[in-house]
Amino acid sequence: MDHSNGAPASRELETVSCQDETGNGLSRRQALGAMATAAFAAGMAVFPAAARPKMARTADPAATKKAFVDKLIARMTVDEKVGQLRLISIGPEMPHAKLMDEVAAGRIAGSFNTVVRRDNRPLQEAAVNRSRLKIPLFFAYDVVHGHRTTFPIPLGLAASFDMAVIERMARVSAVEACNDGVDMTFAPMVDISRDPRWGRTSEGFGEDPYLVSECARASVRGFQGTSPDQPDTIMAAVKHFALYGAVEGGRDYNTVDMSPLRMHQVYLPPYKAAIDAGSGGVMVALNSVNGVPATSNTWLMQDLLRKQWGFKGVTVSDHGAITELTRHGVARDNREAAKLAIKAGIDLSMADQVYLAEVPGLIASGEIKMAELDACVREVLGAKYDMGLFANPFLRMGKAEDDPVDVRSNDRLHREPAREIARETIVLLENRNQTLPLKKQGTIALVGPLADSGLDILGSWSAQGVAEQAVTVKAGIEKAIEGKAKLLTARGANVLDDPKIVEYLNFLNWDKPEVIQDPRPIDVMIEEAVTVANQADVVIAVVGEVRGMSHESSSRVTIEMPGSQRKLLQALKATGKPLVVLLMNGRPLAIGWEKDNADALLETWYTGTEGGNAIADILFGDHNPSAKLPISFPRSAGQIPTYYNALRIGRPYTEGKPGNYTSQYFEEEQGALYPFGFGLSFSTFTLTDLKLSASRIKRGEKLTAEATLTNAGSFEGANVVQLYIADPYASIARPVKELKGFQKVSLKPGEARVVRFEIGPDQLKFVNGDLKEVVENGQFNVQLGLDSRNVLEQSFLLG
Ligand code: BGC
After folding, report:
1. Ligand 1 centroid – CA 187 distance (Å)
2. What is the pLDDT, as a whole number, of residue 8?
3. Three-state SS for 743?
4. Angle, to 10 degrees, between the axis of helix 334-344 and the axis of helix 370-386?
5. Domains in the chain: boundaries
6. Which of 17, 288, 735, 798 has a Cα at 20 to 30 A from 429?
C-alpha cells in the first residue's frame, strides 16, 4: 500500500513536537487539541506552525477538548448553533455558489458528495475566513468499499474471512479519500442481513453477528488508523443504527419489529463492535424499531447508545430522515419532527431543511431547551475537533498547488492491493472433475451479459470508481492468456428481459442509464453464443445481476437467476462443453440449477476495479481460492430466512429422518443450498482429530480446542477453520450453533498444522431473558469445521 500517495501537504504536522511546561512530551492528539484551543483563543482558524505558542499543561485531552468546545458554544448564536447541525449535499437545490454563501453565513456544518479538492477548498475558505466564528467545515462521503479504487463489495470482503484484508481495504480507501479532502465516511455498514431479497445485503458483511462484528472492527481500524485526526485517516460513521437489515420482507425502508433478545443477541453486536473500536460517528437508520422510528427513538439513541454503550461521538440522520418522521406518522409536521429528532439526540440532519426552519422557533418557544440543542452542537464540534479540523481545516485538502491535475488519473489508483484483496473474496462453490484451474491453452469461449461490464463489476456504492478504469472479466482473461490461448466471445443474453424492470433500474439514482439492452431477440443471441461455445474447449459464462439489482431501493421478490440468463446457461450446457459459471451478484441467489449443472461454479460478487485480473488469477490457478460464504444461500425465495444459527425448536427437521409434523417445507429439500462458511479450494483439505484440553472446567477457566488441518491435495492454499459453539440446554432456547472464532491457515501441499482455539467466558456468554450477559453452567458442544455444516464435535461441562 502506498501511504506516501495519501499524504497531503500538511504533513508538517506530523513532525511537530510539543513540550509542556515541565518538558514532558505530549501525545500528538493532546498537542493538536491544545494548539486548536490556543489558535481559537487567538482568533485564528489555522494556526501557523511558526507562531505556535508553548503548550499549556494539558493533563487530560478529553478535558481540553471539552473546554475548547464549551468556550466555542458559549459564543454561538442560536442560528449558528443550528447551522452546525446541517449536513448538505451539493445539488440542484444547493448549487455551489449558494452553498458558499450559506457557509459564509455560518449555516452549514459540512457537506457530502463533494469530493474534489478544487471544489471543496473555496467552501472551507469561506468557512474559516468569512464566517463569524470561523468554524471549519467537514467533508463526508460514502467511502464504503473503496474511493478512487473500488474494492470488492462488503459481502465479498466478508467472504475473505480475513480481517487483515478488510483493514487494508479500509486503510487504502481512507488514504485515497484523504487525498480528495474527505474527512468522514458513512461506513462501515454493519447491518446483519438474513433476507437476501433486501438489495442492501450487498453492502453489509452478511448474516453472522460474530463475523460482522469482526469486520466492523477491522473497518474502523482501517479508516481511522491510530486516530481520525491524522492527514491520512478519516472518521468512520457506522451505519445504519439500528437493525436496518431486518426490514420486513426485505423491502427497503420498511419497518422492523423484533424481540429485544434477538436484537441484543444478533443484530446489535456489530454496531457495538464498531463503536468500541472507536467509530467517531453513528448514522441512524431509516426504519422504525418496534414502532418508533430510529430517528426519533430516545430509547435507541439515548438509553442504549449513549447511556448503556457510552457512545461519545456524533450521530447523523440518514438522508431526509427527519422530515420522514411525518410520513412514519409520529410527527404532525416538520416542527414536531425537528423537536423529536433533537430530543432523541440526532446531531446532524442530513439533506433536509427541517432543523434550519424549525429549531430556532422551538428554542424561542421553549419546546427545545438550549441544553438539548447544545448537546447536539457539542457532538458536531467535538467530531470536527477529533478529525483535527480545528487545528488545521485543510488537514486533508492540503494546498491548492498540490491538487491533482486529473482527479481520475490512473496513477491515483491502488491496483495492486485491489487485485490482491479481490482474489481473497472469490468463493469456489463447485469444481467437478477439477475443471478449474483452466490451462492457458486451446480455445476458450467467454459468454454472458456481465463478461465485459466495467460498470457492474464495481458493484453499488462504488464511490468514485470509474467503469472505464475497471478490468472486466474479458480484459482480465485476455491479459492472462495473451499469446497462449484463443478467446471467443458472445453476449448470449441480456441480464433481464422485462422492459419495466430495466426501466426501474435505470431510474435509480445513477448519472445515466446503466442497463443498456442488446436489441437482438434472445434466441439470436443464444444461437450466437452456442456457435462460439461449439468452437471452444471450455465455456465460461458470466451471469448474475447488474449492480443496480443489489443496491439501495432494489428489493427483489425472487432470488432466481433471471430467466434470459438461465435459458442461455441451459443452451450452453446442451453443447456438452465443460461449463464454468461465474456469478456476479450482490446477494445469495437461488442457484440450484447452476449447482447441479455447472462443471465449476464461482461466486465472484462484484470484485471492483481489478476484478477481471483477480478472477483470471483464480480461473487459471495463479491463485487458489480460499473464501467462504458469509451468508447462507437458500434454495428459493420461499425458504427465506435461511441462516445457520437458528434457535432450537421443539420439532426440528432432522436430515435423513424425514417425517410429518417437523419444521420443514414439503415441496423442497430442507436447509441451505450452500451453508454459511462454505467454500472450496483447488486443493483437498481435511480437518481431523478434534481434541479438547479438558472435559470439564470451572467457571472463569478456559480450555483449548484443537484439530489438525491437512492440505492433502497438490495446490498450495489456505482454508478457514471455523469454531462453532452450541449451548444445548440453557435458561432460554439457544441457537443450534454459533460462530465464535476462525483462523485462515495457508498450507503447502502435504503440509499439516494443528489449529488451536481458546474457549472461555467470552465464547460461552449470551444474553439471557433478562437481557443480561451470562454464562450458564452445563454442557457445551464445540465444533470445528471448514464450513458450518460439516463439523467435528466434542463436548465439555462447565461448572
Ligand atoms: C443511504 C446511506 C448513505 C446516504 C448518503 C442514504 O440514502 O441510506 O447509507 O450514507 O444516503 O449517501
Report:
1. 10
2. 30
3. strand
4. 60
5. 422-639, 685-798
6. 735
Cell numbers of 704, please?
Answer: 483449548
- Of 620, 621, 579, 587, the C-alpha closest to 603 is 587
Residues in the chain: 799
Q: Closest residue (by CA) to atom 2 of ligand 1?
A: 318
Catalytic residue among 195, 318, 347, 599: 318
Q: pTM for the complete prediction?
A: 0.93
Note whether 205 and 630 are within 8 A (CB): yes
**CB of 347 closer than 6 A to ligand 1?**
no
CA-to-CA distance for 69 and 378, rounded, in angstroms? 6
* Residue to mutate (ligand 1; options 319, 348, 555; most atoms within 8 A of CB): 319
257 a catalytic residue:
no
3-state secondary structure 45-110: CCCCHHHCCCCCCCCCHHHHHHHHHHHHHHCCCHHHHHHCCEEEECECCECHHHHHHHHHCCCCCE
Distances (CA, A) of 104 to 107, 128, 130, 131, 373: 8, 8, 5, 4, 21
What would the pLDDT profile of 649-688 be if each residue is shown by its tens digit?
A: 999 998 777 677 999 999 999 999 999 999 999 999 999 9
3-state secondary structure of 288: strand
- Rounded to whole angstroms, the Cα distance separating 233 from 386 reads 11
DSSP state of 262: H
Q: Is 566 in the pocket of ligand 1 (CB under 6 A)?
A: no
At the topology level of CATH, where does 422-639 sit?
Rossmann fold (3.40.50)
In b/e form, how buried is each residue of 389-407, taking b as 16+ CB within 10 angstroms?
Answer: bbbbbbbbbbeeeebeeeb
DSSP label at 560?
B
CATH of domain 685-798: 2.60.40.10
pLDDT tens figures, 443-490: 999 999 999 999 999 999 998 999 999 999 999 999 999 999 999 999
Q: How far apart are CA 109 and CA 778, in angstroms?
A: 54
